[in-house]
Amino acid sequence: MDVNAGNFDKRKGGKAAFKFNSTNDGILLNVHHTVQSQADGTVVRVRFTVAGFSANNERLIAVDHRDNVFVFDLVRQRFWTLSCEPLRKITVIEGLADGRSVALGSKEGVVFIVDLDENCCVRQLKAHPGKIVHLAQSLEFDSVPSEACTDQRYLLAASQDAAKVFSMHDFTELSSISYGLACNNSFRPNTWHWYRAPNGPSLIGHSACGTVRAYRANFKLAKELNAVRLIGLYLKHTPPQTIAFGAGTERTVGHSRELSCPGQNLPTTAQLTADGRYYVLLCGRSTMAFLALDSWLICRVVSFVNLFITHATFVPGQPATRPAATYALAVRTTDNDLMLLNFGCNGTTTNPPRIQPLTVRPSEGQCYKYALAPNGRMLANVLSTGEVLLHGLDTYRVDSFPPAGTGKACVKGRTVPPCGKPSSSGNAAGNAVLRSTRVTKLEQQINALQVQLSEALPTDRLLAILKEYGAYPAKHRATIWRTLQRLPGDAESFGALLRHGPHPCVAGYDERFAGYDRRIVRSVKKTVSALAHWCPVFGLIDYIPSVVLPFARQQPTDALGLFETVATVLLNQCQLWFEFAPLEPFNYLAMVENVLAECEPRLMAFYRRRNITARSYALPLLQTAFAACCGMDDQWLTLWDHVLSSEPYFPVFLVAGFSSIHRATLLAADDARTIDGVFFRHRTVDVRRLVRRAHELMERCSGAAHPRHYFKSFVPLNVGGATYRPVPEPLSDARSTEWPAASTVRPVTSTGSAFSGAANNAIDYTASSTSTATASSLSDGQQPYAPDRAGSYASFSNYPKKLTAVRCAETDALRAEQRRLEAKIVELEKLEHSLQERLVNDLVRQEHQHRVKEVERSLEEAIAREEQRVEMQRKLLLLHRKQLRERESELSHGVHNAKLINDATVRERELDALLGKFERERQREETDLLFAEEDIKLKELELLARYRSGPTVGTAPSGATTSDERPLDQRYQVALEQLAVQKLKLYDEIDRTYCTLGMPAGVNEYTYRTVSELRKVASDAGGERYPTAVQAAEQPRPPKPFLTDRKYTSQIYEDTMRRMKEQVQVLQRLKNDIRKKSISSSD
Predict the structure, then answer these.
(1) How far apart are CA 402 and CA 339, in angstroms?
(2) C-alpha to C-alpha distance for 919 and 747, rounded to whole angstroms
(3) Kind of pairing, strands 162-167 and 173-178?
(4) Residue 251 CA to its chain's centroid (Å)
(5) Which of 794, 735, 737 is nearest to 763 (CA)?
(6) Which stretches does the entry tag as region Disordered (predicted)?
(7) Per DSSP, what are the bridge partners of residue 634?
(8) CB atoms < 10 A from the CB of 251, how many?
């Protein structure tokens, strides 16, 4: 389903719902963030840059380049965004161990610890000054050894130049290491990975030059080696395993034309395998080297012929009883294509390599980044176009790979092309019929051959082979097991059990075994269902699927052989396991304790001192059919070669032998967690050593405590076998007890229902078509009942039938009630769905009406606003016109004033020039007057001298004097008249200036009211200055004496000059007033 992450804020509560994709293309979700641009209304795609999962696999976290952090709840199918303010520039996402928190690394070097339930940031760690490139949480340590000081978890935050380790308890910094260019450390790791070391969680990394270093949590160097040299040494003695795929798979010939030598390529990246046993280096683009972390040696080199990888991650699987037979990797090629690769762990041809491209729609881009879920069932693919695809990896399991993705492996280093081509569709039906006939004939021949082999291989010869080689040949192991167990091969009876349909107890096996191959899961479901129909107690025991699983892994296609093998094992080796079902097999565990008490008294005393019961060290091995102590398939097969070849009580000594082998480790343990880790953490052991120790204990065990007193001999599954119905009795001591005779069995008729009750399936013998079973009563000492059909299975009845019947009835009642409740829930869901649809329709209708009303109201408001705007524009237009007119009048008035000012300025310049001229004339006249005064003074002095000396003899007569003896007013009369004329001209010029300026007379306080007054004042001043001229003009006066008062004459002159200065000042003030008025009028 396509999910637009931008719709979260449009839903109630800030969360939106989504649904998974219903198609079978493997894509569960297609997440994109599409928004509408507010500027131009175009649709904009916001790119996602990083994605990750929480530690509990329930939530997907995606971050886009706008710093929006989205959380997708994959369980409740809701998504929302984190509203934390400081979250920005996120580059790395790591889920923390509690499942509700995640660590987010940013480009600014800050690590944010975010609580997804509270939707807040609880802690900020300033780890580095630069970009955070890697965040990794330490793995959960299975058992804390004595060398480790603590079992706390750590968080690694690495940048390009440094790495720091924080405590997960309080997020305090514990240690750090620097490897930048400014440091002396020459080791610059490309990646960091946590792994389980004997002394606690440790770090491992590699450099670009091929150096691999292992550090402890405090960055103390623990191991350093040269991986390139180790790969070269390995290739000198062992050729690489070469894997080639078909032409239809990923091929990038353009990157490399020839297969380069694996040892010459430097490592580019590295990953740990899912089980943590190997550190896998990707050398170049097409070679993988497996470095064993226990021996620090290269144990395998795989070279891909036509597959070029840039990044690879091992897909973690579900917890299994032993390591998986194949490795699954998510790889990104050089063309940014994402693929799922699967190849065998041991390089054998039993698990051929397969490759499957992850589905990407044609319109989508290529892989930019990807992140795997911790359980390995989901993968988040960040595309180059900015979308996030959530892949469900269950769709891409090995059994669903197409034939084109299958290749072949060659351990000699030579490329082997895939064989076989798909047939045409025209003759497909004919080939299918011919193939079915051939398969039928081949099965008949194989069955006949197996019968002959069974007759030709007696048990004593098989035991000799087992004693000589320690295991049976793998090629003939199935036939040998069939011979040892005397399997009847009754397909008719097995088919009758299958016709009952799947038992209700297998309903949840798909989720329980989600990490296994689908064929194996189907085999387990079919076998457990048949066992539950064969005996009802097997449908109530939780660990029956774990017992069946190892056998199903070895026989995934032979359903009949798998059922008969497991049923024979339950009928013989497990005959005392279900006496107190569904409780623990107390008698069986007591036999184990008795063997340990006699053969290992010190270890048994340790168990009793530490209050460790047999359920702690026996049930983990028994409930997994000893798969927990076998690391490889060959070891488990070898162990069961000995179990099936020995007496039914041999597993008792195997359990005791396992504790005896680990006696030193157990006695040195300080706490119960270390002791439990030996049995519950799938600890492997040498099978041949375990078998030898079990035989030693069996020989050392005395007769009183020997388990053979409590076990019946081997009984085959066919009608010749006995039917065991002993009464459970607690095993209090080691004395031998006899089995009581079988009790009466009620005849039960099968209804043939697919989900019939478990009590109705508790039949003693299975019929073929009618599925009718009958039984008769047996008294003490009688032989077991033999059925009327020679091909029916023997029954298993060593279990509490009444309690089982009661539990089956209760289970049936609970299932019926559950079905009723589920049906009611379905009805309620349908009703809720219909109500939600009605509610949604009502809400949509109401919302539509509300929006229509809002639109109408918005239109009305818009129209009113538009009318107001038009009216306002009209008023503004009128106001603008008025302002234009006012401005026009102001401009015209300003132009007129400017013209007047210009004219006044010109007149003012002329007046200034005239005043300057007058000033120069005045100065010249004053100079002349001064010279005249000096002359007068000299002449007066001369006359005074003459007057004082008197007339001399022989002087000339007075009429003949050489100098002008006239009075001063007569001598300077002409000059004064000229000066008066100039004054009149000056006054006329002033009058013309007033007329030009349009100023009336008396414009200020310093001017005369009329020009005539000014003239009168000037003439008065002239009369005062020259009174003799006035008097001479009016009437003749008698001449005065020649000598006048010199002081009086000077006073008159000074007064005249003073008045002239005052007139000049008045003219200057008049000019200033005119200038000020012109300036004010222009403003």
Answers:
(1) 13
(2) 160
(3) antiparallel
(4) 30
(5) 794
(6) 731-753
(7) none
(8) 16
Which domains can be identified in the chain, with CATH numbers?
Answer: 226-357 (no CATH), 579-711 (1.10.472.80), 807-945+967-1075 (no CATH)
Hey, is 80 helix, strand or coil?
strand
Please tell me the distance from the alpha carbon of residue 707 to that of residue 710, in angstroms, as a whole number: 6
**pLDDT the model gives residue 786:** 32
Query: Is the preceding peptide bond at 582 cis, omega within 30 degrees of 0?
Result: yes
240-254, 584-598, 657-671, 948-962: range with lowest mean pLDDT: 948-962
Q: Is the pLDDT of residue 51 over 90?
A: yes
Identify the top-confidence range among 631-645, 746-760, 870-884: 870-884
**1040-1066 in b/e burial notation, b at 16+ Cβ within 10 A?**
eeeeeeeeeeeeeeeebeebbeebeeb
For residue 635, give Cα distances in angstroms to 131, 169, 234, 540, 687: 48, 41, 25, 30, 6
- Token reading at 716: 């085959």
- Rg over alpha carbons for the chain, rounded to the nearest Å, is 60
What sign results for the dihedral spanned by CA atoms 208, 211, 216, 220? negative
Answer positive or negative: Cα dihedral of 1044, 1045, 1046, 1051: negative
Q: DSSP states of 532-598 as a string?
A: HHH-GGGGT-TTHHHHHHHHHHH-SS-HHHHHHHHHHHHHTTTTTTTTTTTS--HHHHHHHHHHHHH
Residue 284: name the closest of 233, 335, 210 by CA: 210
SS3 content of the chain, % helix, strand, coil (to 5): 45, 20, 40
* pTM, full prediction: 0.42
DSSP strand pairing (78-81 vs 90-95): unpaired
Number of neighbours of residue 706 by Cβ within 10 angstroms: 20
The first and second tokens of residue 197, run together, are 């070391």
Beta bridge partners of 173: 166
124 phi and psi, to 5 degrees? -125, 125
How many residues can be counted in the chain?
Answer: 1083
Q: What residues contact residue 616 under an 8 Å CB cut-off, 6+ apart?
A: 675, 676, 679
Got the DSSP string for 1013-1080? HHHHHHHHHHHHHSHHHHHHHHS--PPPPS---HHHHHHHHHHHHHHHHHHHHHHHHHHHHHHHHHHH
**The dihedral of CA 318, 324, 326, 330: what is its sign?**
positive
Among 5-14, 542-551, 940-949, the range of highest mean pLDDT: 542-551
What CA–CA distance (Å, rounded) separates 52 from 95? 8
Q: Tokens standing for 577? A: 């396991």
Contact 258, 275 (CB under 8 A): no
- Which neighbouring-strand residues pair with 2? 30
CA distance 265 to 862: 73
Cβ atoms 530, 498 nearer than 8 A: yes
Q: For the stretch 559-582, what's the b/e string if a residue is b when 16 or more beta carbons lie within 10 angstroms of its beta carbon?
A: bbbbbbbbbbbbbbbbbbbbbbbe
Nearest to 204 by CA among 152, 167, 163: 163
| Alpha-carbon distances of 689 from 388, 657, 684, rounded to whole Å | 52, 9, 12
244 CB contacts (<8 Å, ≥6 apart)?
304, 305, 306, 407, 408, 410, 415, 416, 417, 418
Q: 932: part of which helix (H) or strand (E)? A: helix 801-949
How far apart CA 968 and CA 1043 sit, in angstroms, is: 10
pLDDT at 665: 80
What does the alpha-carbon distance between residue 589 and residue 579 come to, in Å, rounded to a whole number? 12
Q: How far apart are CA 77 and CA 561, in angstroms?
A: 43
Beta-bridge partner residues of 791:
none
Three-state secondary structure readout of 787-827: CCCCCCCCCECCCCHHHHHHHHHHHHHHHHHHHHHHHHHHH
